[in-house]
Design goal:
The chain is of the alpha+beta class. It folds into 2 domains: 100 residues, Orthogonal Bundle (Helix Hairpins); 302 residues, Bira Bifunctional Protein, Domain 2 (BirA Bifunctional Protein, domain 2, 2-Layer Sandwich), CATH 3.30.930. The protein is built from 14 helices and 16 strands. An 8-stranded mixed beta sheet has the order 1-9-10-11-14-8-7-2. Strands 3-5-4 form a 3-stranded antiparallel beta sheet. The chain starts with a helix and ends with a strand.
């Protein structure tokens, strides 16, 4: 979230940013925050004055006792003060709760390069790579191909519901190969491999994601203060909750592989019988925690890492700079990689890379120390490979006329040299 100090010092910056997003209601929140913040500080001063007054009167009572004088009135006065302090503290608590409500919902400040728009149609394409494959035969849906190659959506729906799947044999090996391929790539880049919890408590989770996700995305563990992770980014960032990092130890580069659990899925077309939007999938994630002056350089670095993976897979893609209406509240800027679907003749998203600046760090109280001063770090995250989407891209771009699928050269060493997947 934005710090109250930032809003206090830059209210017009916040208002202009909200206007870019078309979030007009929250513009009014800024004035209310400032009003409540002013009242909060006035009430704090009142409590300090009352505590000082209580100390003064207590000293006077002690002096009067020594002089054997009447202390009745002084006792009466000093007994009234705690009740007055309690009343003011109750008002302070109410104000703090309202300010916190606002702060948790006001979005991050966007980078100047983020295009203004209302939906994904307004995202700006910044570059393309590769050639669109020329496939001169009727292409199968990737879900169809998976079933032909011994996968099973029907049984998964029977035992778990829509949005789940069984992968078998070479397709399952392809999933594992993508994981190993991405992790090898990132570890060679200096990323530390971290195995994370697959669940987080609400306090930790509120630090890394939008509160709306608790209703729309997260799986709650009943009778426990735990939520299944939607991505290991969340547990990687939460690793540093309430920590103070020495400046010389940054940037911190981490990568992780985990299953991801999400309630949201697609509702039509290939989404109902395929891997594009599902409740459970595997993902290799990259996270960077760094000094604020380095975060935009780090953003380009993690984006480059993701693009290198898809170049090695020889999948034609484009990069989109996500617009104000499509970016969400956490990121200050976000890139998506979109891979070409030859069957649908359009691009689909396979990765995202976000610079969250200090937004998550303020929520989680992650700071760095430099020369005795403590400031909030910047956090960044980027998909290495979400295997379900990469598998879809491979199946659609590498399928052959006979129904088999070639395995990208860079993955073959992870599948015992296998070059092609075909029906058994």
């Amino acid at each position: 979230m934005l710090s109250i100090k930032f809003i206090r010092e830059h209210p017009e910056v916040v208002k202009i940013d909200l206007d870019k997003r078309g979030d007009l209601e929250k513009i009014q929140w800024v004035d209310d925050i400032l009003k409540k913040d002013k009242k909060y500080r006035e009430l704090l001063q009142e409590t300090e004055k009352l505590r000082h007054k209580r100390n003064v009167i207590t000293n006077e009572i002690n002096q009067l006792k020594k002089q054997d004088k009447d202390i009745t009135e002084k006792i009466k006065l000093v007994k009234e003060i705690p009740n007055k302090i309690k009343q003011i503290e109750d008002r302070i608590k109410d104000i703090q709760e309202k300010i916190h409500y606002y702060l948790m919902r006001i979005p991050n400040i966007l980078h100047d390069s983020v295009p203004v728009g209302t939906n994904s149609d307004d995202n700006k394409i910044v570059r393309k790579w590769g050639k669109i494959p020329k496939l001169n035969f009727k292409l199968k849906n990737h879900g169809e191909l998976i079933e032909d190659l011994d996968g099973d959506f029907k049984k998964a729906t029977e035992v778990a519901g829509a949005g789940f799947f069984y992968l078998k044999n070479e397709i399952a090996l392809l999933d594992l190969a993508l994981q190993s391929f991405a992790l090898d790539h990132l570890m060679k880049k200096g990323f530390t491999l971290v195995e994370t919890p697959y669940m987080l408590n609400r306090k930790a989770y509120e630090g890394v994601t939008s509160l709306d996700d608790f209703e729309n995305v997260m799986y709650k563990i009943e009778n426990d203060d735990l939520y299944m992770i939607a991505t290991s980014e969340h547990s990687l960032v939460a690793l540093y909750m309430n920590e103070v990092i020495d400046e010389k130890d940054m940037p911190i580069r981490m990568c992780s592989i985990s299953p991801c659990f999400r309630r949201e899925i697609g509702s039509h077309g290939v989404d109902t019988r395929g891997l594009f939007r599902v409740h459970q999938f595997n993902k290799v994630e990259q996270v960077v925690i760094c000094h604020p002056k380095d975060s935009w350089k780090m953003h380009e670095e993690i984006q480059k890492n993701s693009e290198e993976l898809f170049k090695k897979l020889k999948l034609q893609y484009r990069v989109a700079n996500i617009c104000t209406g499509d970016i969400g509240i956490i990121a200050a800027k976000k890139y998506d990689i979109e891979v070409w679907s030859p069957r649908e003749k359009k691009y689909f998203e396979v990765t995202s890379a976000s610079n969250c600046t200090a937004y998550q760090a303020v929520r989680l109280n992650i700071r760095y120390e430099s020369k005795g001063n403590r400031e909030f770090v910047h956090t960044l995250n980027g998909t290495g490979i979400a295997t379900s989407r990469a598998i879809r891209a491979i199946l659609e771009n590498y399928q052959q006329r006979d129904g088999s699928v070639k395995i990208p050269t860079v993955l073959q060493k992870y599948i015992n040299g296998l070059k092609k997947i075909k029906r058994r």
